[in-house]
Amino acid sequence: MLHTHVVTAPTSARRPDGTARDSWVHPAWWVAAVAFLTAIGAAGFRSTPGVMITPLHEEFGWPIGVIGGAVSVNLVLFGLTAPFSAALMETLGVRRVVAAALLLVSVGALLPVWMTASWQLVLCWGVFVGLGTGAMSMSLVATVTGRWFVARRGLVTGVLTAAGATGQLVFLPLLAWLAVNHGWRSAAIATAALAAAVVPVVLWRFHSHPTDVGVAAYGAPEGTVIGPPPRVAGNPARAALTALSDASRYRVFWLLAGSFMVCGASTNGLVGTHFIPAAHDHGMAETTAAGLLALVGVFDVVGTIFSGWLTDRVDARFLLALYYTLRGASLFLLPSLFGDGVHPSMFAFILFYGLDWVATVPPTMALCRTAFGTRAPVVFGWVFASHQIGAAIAAGLAGLVRDRLGTYDLAWYAAGCLCVVAAALCASIRKRSVADLVAGSALT
User: Fold this and answer.
1) Nearest to residue 111, comparing CAs of 98, 122, 95?
2) Which residues, listed in sequence order, are joined to residue 438 by a DSSP beta bridge?
């Protein structure tokens, strides 16, 4: 059964954007700011494995494939947690879920300091950190933008998505420097401390819904009824599974999930996890490679925010087809660009690839929201789960390719081919199929 709580605010008490007349800043912007900070931290937590693969391999002698397997578990749980956390936010509230997730990440980052076996790495990095970061994934962005924004929704989606790149920019060089100069344990301790430090900010300002502070969403029309979306009474896991069952009946869901799986394989799973060790194979210092990967984050901030702006104005299907095509082309060229130093051609790749890193998120989320209405946060959680499954497969297989062939080249070429397939999937989404869902789907 669905329960709602509705409050009607006098139109004289609010501006057209939903702001109380005695307030200068709409509360939505405070919530977006905390969500941005949380996403920055989550990106930093996810960056840790990339700078620790080589140190762990050298200290414990574990094969790269084994360490990549731990990362794969992390990525799978990171994705699979998303739809369940979105449903849990509807019953317990965003603030409680995010605060608990941060504490779980802190514990998962700290415990490996004392590990002695590879299964402990899988438990901490894979399970604890995977579950924690999964609760702060793109489904959180969908929840925040869906509840708090009517105007500027695409742009805010782009900004919050870009926060992941900002976290990578901030944390990667720091973690790499700590791992090289003070050992990988210092990087793990820093990650745990930073996760715990964000909790008080979340408890202070991360309101779950505009109703909590007596306003309408930002940009809501004058006289809009103030009330949260329907809350599911009962088991959040059942709600998430029901959303998957309903969404899976529609072709658009599978096209979005399939293309987003390729997105995960070609970003987090392959480049995010293996770029640093691949560059190290060619004689490049790890700190230099980490700096290049962080530079991807610089351009990603620009590319993703611009993509959010475009999503408010351009057909999202066209944007996705273009993004995947360009990404595939850049991955085909990457094997020829590695060297023992940084050359202009590598900088060109970093610029080009960085602009495209997660530019796919705003248009994918927009299509999901158009198709599935108020169920979009949970359904997008499942789409995002496919993203992380793709990332996990790529992280594990790329490590095996490196162990067997002594080079990552085959992994880069395979990812480029998959991006071409993803572009075709997005181009095949029929505009009518999305419109039909809006008109007659039981999901909306």
Assistant:
1) 122
2) none
In the 8-state DSSP scheme, what is residue 283?
A: T
Residue 28's pLDDT band (boundaries 50, 70, 90)?
Answer: confident
Closest CA to 125 of 72, 64, 86, 180: 72
Taking the C-alpha atoms of residue 315 and residue 367, their distance in angstroms, rounded to an integer, is 9
Comparing CA positions, the residue from 382, 381, 413, 386 lying closest to residue 397 is: 413
Angle between helices 273-281 and 376-405 (to 10 degrees): 20
CA angle, 62 then 64 then 69, to 5°:
95
Q: Would you say 151 and 218 are in contact if contact means Cβ atoms under 8 Å apart?
A: yes
Rounded CA separation 259/420 (Å): 10
Per-residue pLDDT of 87-103, as tens digits, reads: 788 778 888 888 999 89
Average pLDDT over residues 293-300: 80
Measured over the CA atoms of residue 132, residue 320, residue 336 and residue 299, the dihedral's sign is negative
Is 4's pLDDT higher than 80?
no
Instruction: Determine the pLDDT at residue 313.
Output: 87
CATH topology of domain 23-213+240-436: Growth Hormone; Chain: A; (1.20.1250)
Where along the chain do its domains lie?
23-213+240-436
Q: What does each C-alpha distance from 199 to 167, 192, 194, 218, 282 come to in angstroms?
A: 16, 12, 9, 25, 40
Mean pLDDT confidence for 348-375: 86
Q: Are 167 and 40 in contact (CB under 8 A)?
A: yes
For tokens 């495209």, the residue is 356
Residue 344: partners with Cβ closer than 8 Å, 6 or more residues away: none
Mean pLDDT of 319-338: 92
Q: Tens digit of pLDDT for each residue in 132-172?
A: 888 887 778 878 887 888 888 888 888 887 776 667 667 77
Which of 199, 247, 231, 220 is closest to 37 using CA atoms? Answer: 199
Q: What is the mean pLDDT of residues 181-191?
A: 84
CB 146 within 8 A of CB 32: no
Nearest alpha carbon to residue 134 among 391, 378, 384, 376: 384
Beta strands 2-3 and 231-232, pairing class: antiparallel
